[in-house]
């Protein structure tokens, strides 16, 4: 244990903690500002069209309209899902890992979301 | 007959050292954990099996030592380094090429950050920017582990690389260790990925010890929707702000944000998909092989490695504590509108630590949904750790 | 305390130059155009955001200047160049590696031509070979722009690189500029891709000015079917004919035709798909990052760049005019059986300029379908531009 | 503006324009010749089979219109799937080469098996 | 023909043949041992659950069965295809940019064609 | 005017040699065989068309000779080799980079083995381990061909490379030849892939000549099921056993087994898929281009090449005979419970030779299914050939 190095380490700690809080603090402030601007813009641009500009959280993930009305797609997909689900029907309690199954190819709109999420789960921790 | 004796001399079995045997067992253990318990298999399986392969003597698939004291004028340049290594250790094997050309040049960690950016939705952090501070607070674990490592006799470069394990970001750990202390790369990488998959075991007791049931029951109001415009602006702004203030973090943050812009822009879906899938998968393979190939007896089988594994737990635990305690502070300031547990998600390990938080919340109150709120600190933690790595590089690099 | 001052010195903000700020704004403009108006987003988005990143000071992600006066014996060899750059400008950052190893060695432009070959159907040109001449006529724009550039004081190497913008083939432009005048690479690449997406604005007025409504109403007889055998023979023949006559065009044409043979042979679908998708996507990412990283203040912010952007318009406009005028000549010779507008499609920009022609034709006569006839000059224009690039390399390279 | 360079540029222009017209002209001639040969071959090989060799223009232009009306395609696909599925459930007489068909995308779980097997066939020999 | 080299070649042949038989022999022995261990483990672990551990040879190539009977899958897919096809059948007025929609994953045969065309549109201009 | 004469001098046509013309025809023949008869198109098509391209004079796409006598101190190091080649033969073209950086460094053959591992099911060999010996017996062909080559005057290094053609494993052939005798790489690679696709023609007469109808009618009992655990243990055990005994085979076997572990572990499906598809496809493209680019007149158009093509038949035929004869021995020992034909599948060529065996069995008795039994020797043959390559490298490398 080298005392000079520990002191140096202390300084680095002080700087590091300061910097990381400063940076993320500034980022937070900027994001608040951007959010405020966005709300102003939206209000000004289309005072009555807010629902369009601020989609429901569910729709927000996907920006564009699918060529099939999601409701119909949902029904069709549900048929397939129900079937595949039956096979995989062991209800696991909050699975910490969800298996990627081949049948995702049939899910349509759910595909990308789930696929990425699963990979996120495994890889995102990096 | 001479030919026959020549051949017998090439039997690897005759050159097997005790170190080799131990490293093979270590590798097999990683493979076992990866398969049996699905511990971070995308990394630990390739790392483990590669460790087995490179410890079979005379295979020639990895001939160059990982950490060498290079002459001053050589170490400046990766290409001179390669020429020097060729001169002194012979023709490179496949794994030498992967390690020296792809990992040591930082190509692989940076491309993984690029892919991660394309896979990450920063929406929860944009919707509630104050949660970014929790991503900063969790970095305290990095410094606690660094100071502990210094106290245990590691030098500053090594201590910083060990501390960053607490950031729970594999590529950042590899990026920093490769630059500051390549001799302990295998140990820090294995520690980072191992503990990451142990997050569901490490975090709950700490979270529960630092919070009361009432605090854990706090419900948070629903996040506001985030517009496409905000999501597009986010990576651009973040890149510029951090790039100007901590330039040494710019490569990591920059690649992360380029990837995220690809994702959110909506106009380059092909490239975004490529970043997330084909490029990511290929790079992941090379990362696993490259890191695994550094697990040689001479550099891995030391008391240091055991200490590093121990320090990894310190790092993760103190990062969790840092996040939760800052969460309690924010709870007080906000008048009880913030559930302090979401601070624990500041250690990154996206999205596992956020799920851990949600699970504990559900245990107390099945109707309490704070997963999305925990995702804010969670993704902020990635940025925070990259910033800390930048500070280390600026001061020590 | 000294540590603290050290750290302050690493603040990029303190080293930001006016040039950096302007380049960041230029990069952001490209990003905006790419997202808001979908201007060639696959290239302009990565180029723009990378330009932002490399102009953040001290990031170390791109340390090597793009255009250096290398000693004679060094410039002969890419590997010596790299060693030289390491010696003089330090360890390469990720973008230096991408630019020097992938773009400057021509690996990336050639692999993109390979992928383009696998994606292009040369059927319309095979069905009506005379339309190939329209692809030649449009190259007149290249020479008009080159001569104008010479008159404005550019040297021959630069003028040729600027002229080739009129070919409307991004990879050919990058290929030629990298070889002849790397100092203006960023400008020519940005000009080429920007004007390409402006084709629907640039071409219509020129086409209308040079043709009468009667000419635009000319209907063309249906194209004959093309057999699989002809489609397979085409790439082989084209490679050999052009390779023997203009060898310096052989790399571009050769890779284009290998890709096309993969496509048409029907026996290597896996490889054809890989050329079009996984390989193409990955290479496109590196092209965008590599070109974007050359947008440094010192080489981009010059009067030359503005002139190049202006000359790009000259090039596109005169290429369009050349094609249309030769189309009128062919119309006369054929006795009015050729719609002269399809000459405008000779500028490549596949398939956008062909769609422009079809749209104008539809405006005059909704029942006039000349899209497929316009595809002939369109794909011939790709070959024509590669041939011109070969001539430039033979005479100037 | 350097006059020598402009003159040189003029020469390059003359050569360049000549070469590009020559090359594409030669290419056109060769293509006419190949087309003529092809027609002769087709006529000789199968005098009555021209319809087979000359697909309808609609099919040739395949970029714009799907070559089969999508609704029919659906029905046909269903038939094919039902058929192939039945085939797949029996023991096949060891085909020496099985073509990869696009419809594998619809098979779901059968995908990987078949895909890999076919590729094995071609590549596995290495 | 160099006699020394031929003699050397003879030695190499002797060694090579010995080694390759030895190695694959050892491998075979180890595999027999592993197989024996496996059977013992299985017997001990679940004396009655052998059917689970020993899938039929047909299923052995692929560890799992398709979760949907292919015939049902075909019918379901046809429904989806018919639906999406109708949506796609509106004659569009020469779109200057066609959006890639997620539902292409359900199209089956149309997939590749459209996918490539769209990418052509963006990239082909190069 | 001088410019014009300069340009005429660059006409490739004027520099075309008889050798070039012949090589172009050879290339076209390969393309024809690949498309018309689907002879190993994934390799022979790229090889053939690349051979055409590199034999067009002055194209500059492949400037460096394939086999050079390098000074002792240069040949030790691939990077020195590249510097040396740059000095003596100028800037590398795309194909020089592919060959020297990807093929000659063994990156490409090893990554293909990695992908093959991920695609291969070793189940049939695990179920019936004794069939592994048939995979050993078929290697006799390798030695027969080697001795014949020696008798014809080839040196030991060349003879070993020629012999290995009999192993019917393309990447192993390329791996060994690149290390021992790069001057005959094109010939051995083309021979290996050509004869592989002729297996259905070469094998049946030999099998029938060496077996009686009664032997061919022998039915074998159904293979036992193989558990997932056994399949996971297999690659690990094989890597360690072979790695310790024949270390020089460890790179090939190691990569094969890492790929197989990715496949069988079931926890890294993404990486396994990437190894089989995106990475495999890209690497296959580069292998084809790299090998094709070595087909230059000076090294390919020799009497040696013809002899090599002839020796390839010897190798395949004697390998088949070796397998079948050993099969008969095993049949005797086992009391007639083994169909000797499955020995013919020991030549690898997965799964073609196994299908050939099944087809002959079906001819004799339509109800005789020995395909899966033939797959045992089939996959064992891959391992056997890699072991033999290891022995060659140990004794000659
Ligand atoms: Na973190
Ligand atoms: Na063009
Ligand atoms: Na073999």
Automatic annotation (TrEMBL), chains A, D, E:
Q: Where is the composition biased (Low complexity)?
A: 48-59
Primary location recorded for the protein, binned into one broad class = membrane
- Transmembrane regions listed in the UniProt entry: 12-37
InterPro entries for the chain: Na_pump_deCOase
Recorded GO cellular component terms are: plasma membrane
**Key words of the record:** Cell membrane, Membrane, Transmembrane, Transmembrane helix
Q: GO:BP terms for this protein?
A: sodium ion export across plasma membrane
| Location of region: Disordered | 45-66
Record-level Gene Ontology MF annotations: sodium ion transmembrane transporter activity
Q: Which domain of life is it from?
A: Archaea
The record's subcellular locations are: Cell membrane
Q: Name one Pfam family in it.
A: OAD_gamma
Is this entry keyworded Transcription? no
Give the protein name, as stated in the record.
Methylmalonyl-CoA epimerase
UniProtKB/TrEMBL annotation, chains B, C, F:
What is its subcellular localisation? Cell membrane
Q: What is this protein called?
A: Glutaconyl-CoA decarboxylase subunit beta
One GO molecular-function entry: lyase activity
**In its keyword annotation, does this UniProt entry include S-adenosyl-L-methionine?**
no
Transmembrane stretches in the record are 12-35, 42-62, 97-119, 131-154, 232-258, 279-297, 303-326, 369-396
NCBIfam families attached to this UniProt entry: Na_pump_decarbB
InterPro entries hit by this protein: OadB_MmdB
């Amino acid at each position: 244990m080298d005392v000079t190095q520990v002191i140096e380490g202390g300084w680095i700690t002080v700087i590091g903690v300061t910097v990381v809080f400063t940076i993320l603090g500034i980022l937070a402030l900027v994001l608040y500002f951007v959010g405020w601007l966005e709300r102003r813009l939206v209000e000004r641009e289309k005072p009555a069209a807010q629902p369009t500009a601020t989609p429901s959280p569910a729709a927000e993930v996907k920006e564009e309209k699918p060529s099939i009305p999601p409701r119909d797609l949902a029904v069709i997909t549900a048929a397939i899902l129900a079937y595949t689900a039956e096979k995989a029907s062991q209800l696991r309690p909050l699975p910490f890992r969800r298996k990627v199954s081949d049948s995702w190819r049939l899910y349509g709109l759910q595909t990308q979301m789930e696929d990425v999420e699963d990979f996120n789960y495994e890889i995102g921790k990096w | 007959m001479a030919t026959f004796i020549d051949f017998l001399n090439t039997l690897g079995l005759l050159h097997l050292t005790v170190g080799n045997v131990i490293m093979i067992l270590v590798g097999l253990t990683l493979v076992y954990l990866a398969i049996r318990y699905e511990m971070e298999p995308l990394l630990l399986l390739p790392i483990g099996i590669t460790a087995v392969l490179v410890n079979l003597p005379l295979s020639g698939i990895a001939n160059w030592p990982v950490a060498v004291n290079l002459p001053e004028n050589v170490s400046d340049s990766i290409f001179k380094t390669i020429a020097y290594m060729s001169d002194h250790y012979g023709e490179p094997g496949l794994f030498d090429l992967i390690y020296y050309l792809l990992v040591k040049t930082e190509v692989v960690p940076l491309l993984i950050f690029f892919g991660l950016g394309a896979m990450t939705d920063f929406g929860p952090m944009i919707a509630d920017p104050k949660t970014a501070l929790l991503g900063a607070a969790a970095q305290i674990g990095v410094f606690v582990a660094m100071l502990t490592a210094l106290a245990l006799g590691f030098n500053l470069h090594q201590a910083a690389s060990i501390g960053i394990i607490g950031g729970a970001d594999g590529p950042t750990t590899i990026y920093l260790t490769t630059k500051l202390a390549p001799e302990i790369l295998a140990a820090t990488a294995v520690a980072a990925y191992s503990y990451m998959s142990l997050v569901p075991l490490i975090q709950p007791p700490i979270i529960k010890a630092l919070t009361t049931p009432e605090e854990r029951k706090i419900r948070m109001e629903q996040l506001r929707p985030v517009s496409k415009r905000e999501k597009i602006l986010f990576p651009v702004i973040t890149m510029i702000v951090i790039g100007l203030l901590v330039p040494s973090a710019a490569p990591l943050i920059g690649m992360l944000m380029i990837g995220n812009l690809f994702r959110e822009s909506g106009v380059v879906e092909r490239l975004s998909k490529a970043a997330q899938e084909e490029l990511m998968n290929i790079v992941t393979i090379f990362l696993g092989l490259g890191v695994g190939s550094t697990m040689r007896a001479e550099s891995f089988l030391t008391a240091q490695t055991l200490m590093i594994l121990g320090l990894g737990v310190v790092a993760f635990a103190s990062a969790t504590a840092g996040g939760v305690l800052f969460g309690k502070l924010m709870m007080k300031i906000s008048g009880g509108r913030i559930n302090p547990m979401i601070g624990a998600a500041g250690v990154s390990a996206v999205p596992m630590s956020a799920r851990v938080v949600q699970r504990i919340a559900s245990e107390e109150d099945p109707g309490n949904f704070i997963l999305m709120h925990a995702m804010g600190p969670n993704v902020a933690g990635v940025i925070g750790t990259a910033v800390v790595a930048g500070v280390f590089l600026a001061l020590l690099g």
